[in-house]
Amino acid sequence: MLTKICPLLQKKTLASQSRKEKFEDIIVELGIRCRSAPQLDIENCWNSTYDMIESAETFKEAFLELKVKDSSYTYCPSSQDWERASAVCKLLKVFKKATKVVSGTSYPTSNLYFHETSSRRGRFSPNETIASMVFEMQQNFDKYWMISYLTNYVPVILDPRFKYGFIEFRLKQAFGEYGSVPHLDKVDQAIRRLFNAYSTQVGGSSQVETHGDDMTAVGKGHPWSDWSEHTNAKRKEENNEYDRYLRDDLFSCDDESFDILDWWKMHASKYPTLAAIAHDILAVTASTVPSESPFSTGGRIINDHRTRLAGSMVEALLCFQDWLRTAGSSYLDIISIENLNGSSD
What we know:
- 18% of the residues are buried.
- Helices cover 60% and strands 0% of the residues.
- It contains 18 helices and no strands.
- The longest helix is centred in the N-terminal third of the chain and has 24 residues.
- It folds into three domains: 102 residues, no CATH class; 189 residues, no CATH class; 43 residues, no CATH class.
- By secondary structure, it is mainly α.
- This is Putative transposase.
- It holds the Pfam family hAT-like_RNase-H.
- InterPro entries: hAT-like_transposase_RNase-H (IPR025525), HATC_C_dom (IPR008906), RNaseH-like_sf (IPR012337).
- GO terms for molecular function: DNA binding; protein dimerization activity.
């Protein structure tokens, strides 16, 4: 399919002045409005393939009309080729958007990664053109997802717009009522272990007062003593900070500009332990590379010299890069970064 579309947009296709003028006249006749001309493909950059197909679709009718008016024009794809191109374009568009969202640098992204991936999971219909492609991609995705999903779920729980209920909803959609149980148990255990670990650091502030003192004490030797201990422990567990957070209403906000860090800053006194967790978890980005890097297959992203950097130097460079971005710099020359650590010898 791409072998038909790519030549369509090569310079030689409209190389002759007469054909170029004819093509421009056809665009005017058909009333096609576009700010830019059809874009060329870059072999080692797959997002350019998406841009190429998208721009080609805009001028589809013009190319078909050019084939009718110019008998020497032989590059035009068939209707079936255009249908396949459209299917691939929709697939690439989804991934391009998701990659840009989770590669953002001016806002927290760890709480957005799960939404982008889970919403993409069931979006693709069994289109014959891309079915095998999607199946292979899904297998690779599931392989890595199963060893990293816990780190992607915790930030969602810390998002007051979704919390644990959203994870439960999505996992039941994906794995069914019973198939989701093992995953949900792991998620619940992970967040509670994390909460307990932070509780010891924050202190007793994460626990709320229980009403055990109001109950009549039951002696250890009494046959009901184990029941009394069980109910008191249950009430204490249900009244900890994390469970209160889950019981509280979801924060209603459809605004994409919602600042989750500001929310936790304002609610730190109400949820001190969870605020400490959010402070650390949400500071970690979903992706550590710019959005341009996943789109490129041209060469290695990390060279041999950079993989030998000491941990302290990597941390220093990350901080330095963050400071530059805060100051308004959108790009940091990799060569300059490497030079900060001396020669590669």
